[in-house]
Write a structure and sequence with these properties.
Blueprint (H helix, E strand, L loop, with lengths): L1 E8 L3 H21 L1 E10 L2 E4 L8 H9 L11 E3 L3 H6 L5 E4 L9 H12 L3 E4 L3 H5 L1 H11 L3 E2 L10 H8 L5 E7 L2 H13 L3 H10 L8 H4 L2 H14 L9 E3 L7 H9 L2 E12 L2 E12 L12 E7 L4 E6 L4 H17 L2
Helix pairs in contact: 1-2, 1-13, 4-6, 8-9
Length: about 350
């Protein structure tokens, strides 16, 4: 049986759900994959819980403690106030970090320190946080390659939708010619409401906010920024590039009107916010913009808050995957999947 020692950075919604999955499925992972996942440390803003025992932290007790509203640094026996994730990583007593802190797209935030620190300790990285990988991908990739560690970021690229898995694993050996995706559930919900019910953009947005699909400040989604970040990660991982956000042309949905929707309908088309990576000779074109799709297009039937990715290849033709839960549970499940795939094959 293979034992993998984990440091969890971030005990918010995604981090707690990740711990819950470990608590609920530990025996199943051993039986199915011969894989034992042990949490050596769990860090958050004010401190951490840490152990040096080979048995790891009592995960079931820890997740119950956290979900009862308590903070990790106060966890009996193991809690340590003021201890940081970076300090735990520097001890080198783990095989992998699971990065679930809030995303910071200005300078990478604390996740940048965690990720670079983990590479120095030759730890693999599993991350739902896209910040460091959007901002510093080229440097991270080079350092990780030199150290022989893996960067596993499917949870940062549309969460439960297996965008990277399909491109990297299922399409291995093909030449991927292009990728098109609906990578943001909020914008797809708004556009669906505008198409199905003739709802104005601002009304559809308010409905999405009431349902909890859109944030109080929805600009990150509706201006196309979230989709642009995910487009960049797909381009860099699947297409083997080291591009930056400045290489992505971005237009959101804020100027899409009911008249635009109706004009598309008359042509038997439907408007979707499409992320695209296209190979053009030796260069790559990355874009996010509203597009009127023919009803026969594989992404045309993706409705509501669902997401999808569609790849075109030279030998397998077109491959489309849609769905995937947009929630902390979905993101946590994507991180667990990355962990399993990373270490079962080692």
């Amino acid at each position: 049986m293979k034992t993998v020692k984990i440091i969890l950075c971030g005990c918010g919604g995604v981090g707690k759900e990740f711990l819950q999955l470990l608590a609920d499925r530990g025996e199943e992972l051993v039986a199915k994959y011969d894989l034992q996942l042990i949490v050596m440390g769990a860090a958050d803003l004010k401190g951490a819980a840490l152990t040096n025992s080979d048995e790891g932290l009592p995960v079931a007790e820890l997740v119950t403690y956290l979900k009862d509203g308590n903070e990790v640094q106060n966890f009996p026996t193991f809690g340590k106030e003021g201890l940081t994730g970076a300090e735990i990583i520097a001890q080198g007593n783990a095989d992998v970090i699971v990065e679930a802190t809030p995303t910071d797209l200005k300078d990478g935030g604390v996740a940048k320190t965690h990720v670079f620190g983990a590479i120095e300790q030759s730890m693999d990285i599993v991350s739902a946080n896209k910040g460091p990988f959007v901002l510093f991908y080229e440097e991270l990739f080079k350092r990780a390659k030199a150290k022989g560690v893996g960067l596993h970021i499917s949870a940062a690229t549309a969460a439960a939708l297996p965008t990277l898995d399909v491109g990297l694993i299922c399409l291995a050996g093909t030449r991927v010619l292009s990728a098109e995706g609906i990578l943001n559930g909020t914008t797809n919900y708004i556009l669906t409401q505008m198409y199905v019910n003739g709802t104005a953009y601002d009304v559809a947005l308010k409905e999405a906010q009431k349902l909890g699909i859109a944030e109080t400040d929805p600009s990150y989604d509706v201006e196309g920024k979230d989709s642009a970040n995910k487009t960049l990660l797909i381009a860099n991982r699947v297409f083997g590039q080291t591009l930056s956000l400045s290489d992505v042309s971005v237009q959101g949905i804020t100027e899409v009107t009911p008249e635009d929707i109706e004009e598309a309908r008359k042509s038997d088309k439907i408007i979707k916010l499409i992320s695209e990576v296209k190979v053009e000779g030796d260069s790559f074109k990355l874009s996010v913009s509203p597009k009127a799709l023919d009803k026969t297009h594989p992404l045309a039937s993706v409705n509501g808050s669902e997401k999808a990715i569609s790849y075109d290849t030279d030998t397998m033709g077109g491959i489309t995957v849609m769905g995937g839960k947009s929630s902390p549970v979905g993101a946590a499940a994507a991180m667990l999947k990355d962990l399993i795939n990373a270490f079962v094959s080692k």
